[in-house]
Amino acid sequence: MCIRDRIPFIHPIVFPIAISPSTRDLYEGIKEMVEPGDVVVMNIAFGVDAWPECMPAFCACTKLLIREGAKIIFWGAYYDVDMTYQEVLRRCEDYFKNLKYGEDYVYLGYYPNQEAAVAQLAASIRSIFKTDNYGTPLDEIPMMKNVDKATDIKLVLSGDTGDVCDYYIRQWRIPYGTPVAEIGIAMLGSSYMPFYKSGVLFGMSVGVRGGAELEKLVGEPAEATIRMGAINISHILVVIAVILANIGYFASRRK
User: Fold this and answer.
1) Cα–Cα dist 37/219, whole Å
2) In 3D, which of 7, 2, 16 has the Cα closest to residue 225?
3) Is residue 78 part of a domain?
4) CB neighbour list of residue 212: distance below 8 Å, 6 or more residues apart
5) Residue 237 domain flag
6) For a disulfide at 155, which of 111, 179, 189, 213, Cβ 3.0-4.6 Å?
7) What DSSP state is assigned to residue 145?
């Protein structure tokens, strides 16, 4: 990375960000549906390599859910889910410091077997997780005492680099009616747009751009906003390079 590419990170350059309908619906859907005390699931289906694209939006939604008074279950389908969960706690530290583990949020950890496990979680969370990630039985965790199936969950937000959100659509949204939204990498935008357009997903965040939009909506510009500045600058440089190349080409033709 040359010095001109580092400038937007050293000295952030913030460009105006228009909010896409899918991001706004994600934000407004959370605010409209979640009441204090509702239990929601934050599904971590992205690894460390996708933090730049998924983490900003995932954290912005976490902050919004905490503001709305939701109780959050964190679990994940990726083997490095522990690292991602700890990073969420770090980035949202100011929000979690006023919460109590086991009463306001809980971390159940990694689940294997992909869609089969997601289907089983919908029928009974305890069929997959007997305890939380630290060995405490779910019945001894206050916020989990009356929570065991999809109908006990207000909504699911799935952060993805693959097709795990499909599992929640098929196993939670369609049979149980649990609202589902997608927080995905940019290349998943076109894949999940039909689900959003048809109302199967109540909202969707797409890549770094979606993260920057959510940061704007929650009023806390952070990493994605800085990254969008860098992306915009790089695009401007490409346009300038194309213009200069064309000027040079036509100048050479005259000679």
Assistant:
1) 23
2) 16
3) yes
4) 17, 56, 221, 224, 225, 227, 228
5) no
6) 179
7) T
Nearest to 27 by CA among 82, 55, 66, 65: 65
Q: What is the CATH number of the domain that holds 59?
A: 3.40.50
Contact (CB, 8 A) for 74 and 61: no
Residue 16 lies in a domain: no
- Which pTM was predicted? 0.84
Report strand pairing: 71-76 vs 105-110: parallel
Report yes or no on 15 lying in a domain. no
Q: How many structural domains compose the chain? A: 1
Which domain, by its residues, includes 88? 21-220
CA dihedral for 166, 167, 173, 179, sign (positive or negative): negative
Q: Report whether 147 contacts 125 (CB < 8 A).
A: yes
Cα–Cα dist 37/68, whole Å: 9
pLDDT digits (tens, 9 = 90+) for 14-63: 556 889 999 999 999 999 999 999 999 999 999 999 999 999 999 999 99
Q: What angle do CA 51, 165, 161 make, to 5 degrees?
A: 30
Mean pLDDT of 135-161: 97
